[in-house]
Write a structure and sequence with these properties.
This protein has helices at 3-11, 27-50, 56-118, and strands at 125-135, 141-151, 158-170, 173-178, 188-192, 195-203, 208-219, 227-232. Among the domains are: 85-118; 125-232, Sandwich (Immunoglobulin-like). The protein is built from three helices and eight strands. It is an alpha+beta fold and 235 residues long. The chain starts with a helix and ends with a strand. The model has no long low-confidence stretch (mean pLDDT 80).
Length: 235
């Protein structure tokens, strides 16, 4: 067989190369496909530029801010509770101090009453048990507390008067003045069987340097003091 005959037979035989048959698409369909692809790409690009971007560090900052706000609120609550606790503790300390003072006063009064009732062997004798002075609400004002008792047998009444004499200096010279309450010219009247408390106030005259207060007990019918006790004024 000649060469050209063999080439023709080879080309049209079953061993020829495969040929793909594709339907032909109109040009406007291809244009629509290209436009669709371009539109999708544009949308994806725009979303990437303007849409939300997840940043793990931003989430951590938000969580930290929330934690700080929570801690601040907790600190305010603890501070408020601490203030309430401190106020309650201060009030409790004041109440305890008041109770201790009251307890001491009750013990003193109990001992005082026992001493009065136990002294029954001798005849009754008046005594100035105590003289207490304290500052008043204004400069130069003072308060006094005087306790008179009768020791021994209490078979008679103690009657008389108590005079208060303020001693000091005025313009460099000795100064003495009676400071009985108004309306009691001859002293403070006393009349008791067991004891009597005397309380009141007095003021130091201007330009006077007060030093002490002298308490004088005068029995009824006598002009001279039967008992005298002096107490220094508190600074």
């Amino acid at each position: 067989m000649k060469w050209w005959q063999r080439q023709i037979k080879k080309h049209f035989s079953i061993s020829a190369a495969q040929v793909a048959v594709r339907p032909a698409l109109p040009w406007y369909w291809r244009a629509l496909q290209v436009l669709a692809l371009l539109s999708i790409g544009a949308v994806i690009g725009a979303w990437g530029l303007t849409g939300p971007v997840f940043n793990p560090f931003d989430a951590q900052q938000v969580q930290r801010r929330e934690d700080v706000q929570t801690l601040q609120a907790r600190a305010v609550q603890l501070e408020s509770k601490l203030q309430v606790s401190m106020a309650a503790q201060s009030n409790l300390a004041k109440e305890m101090a008041g109770l201790q003072d009251e307890n001491m006063r009750l013990k003193e009064e109990s001992g005082f009453y026992k001493s009065i009732l136990s002294e029954t062997g001798t005849s009754g004798v008046p005594k100035i048990h105590s003289v207490k002075l304290s500052k008043g609400g204004h400069a130069g004002d003072y308060q006094y507390q005087i306790l008179l008792v009768q020791s021994g047998r209490h078979d008679k009444m103690v009657q008389g008067a108590v005079q208060l004499v303020l001693n000091g200096t005025q313009d460099g010279k000795p100064f003495a003045q009676h400071v009985e309450p108004a309306g009691q010219r001859n002293g403070i009247k006393v009349n008791f069987k067991y004891y009597q408390r005397i309380e009141g106030t007095f003021s130091v005259p201007p330009q006077t340097v007060a030093q002490n207060l002298q308490v004088q007990y005068l029995a009824a019918g006598l002009s001279q003091p039967a008992l005298t006790q002096t107490a220094s004024l508190p600074n």
